[in-house]
Specification:
Blueprint lengths: L1 E8 L7 H17 L2 E5 L14 H4 L9 H6 L4 E9 L5 E9 L2 E7 L23 E4 L2 E7 L6 H9 L4 E6 L6 E2 L2 E2 H17 L2 E6 L1 E4 L2 E4 L3 E3 L5 E4 L6 E8 L1 H9 L2 H4 L2 H13 L4
Pfam families: CN_hydrolase
Keywords: Hydrolase
Organism: Caldisericum exile (strain DSM 21853 / NBRC 104410 / AZM16c01)
Length: about 280
């Protein structure tokens, strides 16, 4: 199956939900005109990233009427976005939504919010605990958020779950600019190459651009096929929408030439993992 995916590499306005919602609708309209089936926005695309004391003010429950316009838009195109979620447990989460056919099909909470160096997410957000996937018209998908991408066990769950697409939405700050490519961009792309090669699914990585209170984001969004090809990529530092055509036959091709998933024994893996967690040497 061939279809188009649009990457919305936007620069959200910190704390301005209404302005950011308008931008989501405008970019979704552009993606529809380009014939895209899915549009993907960055992490916390509705709110901006460096919220700090604004976090409570801009957090929304997933069933908020605020999302009605974008739910309506999702009748014409599937939408992945990020927002600050008021959880039913009275905890605020860094979360993602997958919307389709006018409904929320998936709600995912970031499992590994970093809190070191420039990062302080656990001061303001709770920690998600559940990997999730859903079946769509074009395949099985999961969504992860930024730092989650650097935790191979989480991507391994997607592999064992036999997903076709992993949507990784991100607010990856610019770090280590040397030569033509930021070092952090090279790290992200190297990780993507490993995952797509061994796990045989598509990676759809969307990173924001712009600044939040002096913290800059580099962009560099891309779609990578299981065959290793970068199908489409966005530039650095500029807000833009780019659209590429994916072909799910690439999954069959890769799993035929490199059939790791057929060789897996999930039960043996689970038994050995339980021993490690339990501290058993037997």
């Amino acid at each position: 199956m061939k279809f188009k995916i649009s990457l919305a590499q936007i620069n959200p306005t910190l704390g301005n939900l209404e302005k950011n919602l308008v931008k989501h609708l405008e970019f979704a309209e552009k993606a529809i005109l380009e014939g895209a089936r899915v549009i993907v926005f960055p992490e916390l695309s509705i709110t901006g990233y460096l919220l700090r004391d604004l976090t409570y003010e801009v957090a929304l429950p997933s069933n908020s009427d605020f999302f009605k316009p974008i739910k309506e838009m999702s009748k014409n195109i599937d939408i992945v976005l990020g927002f600050a979620e008021k959880g039913e447990d009275k905890i605020i989460y860094n979360s993602a939504l997958y919307l389709s056919k006018g409904e929320i099909k998936l709600l995912y909470r970031k499992m590994f919010p970093p809190t070191h160096g420039m990062f302080e997410e656990l001061r303001f957000f709770g920690r998600g605990e559940t990997y999730k996937s859903i079946k769509t018209d074009y395949g099985k998908i999961s969504v992860i958020i930024c730092r989650d991408f650097f935790h191979p066990p989480l991507l391994s769950l997607a592999y064992f779950d036999n997903v076709d697409f992993v949507f990784a939405i991100s607010n990856m700050p610019l770090r280590g600019l040397k030569g033509e490519k930021p070092q952090i961009q090279e790290t992200v792309e190297n990780a993507s190459s490993v995952y797509t090669n061994f796990f045989s699914f598509f990676i759809v990585y969307v990173n924001r651009v712009g600044f939040d209170d002096g913290l800059g984001f580099y962009g560099g969004s891309f779609v990578q096929s299981p065959t290793g090809k970068k199908i489409v990529r966005a530039g650095l530092f500029e807000e833009e929408i780019v659209t590429g055509t994916v072909d799910t036959e690439d999954i069959y091709k890769k799993r035929t030439s490199f059939p790791l998933i057929k060789e897996e024994n999930k039960q043996v893996f689970e038994e050995n993992l339980r021993k490690i967690i339990g501290g058993s040497d037997d």
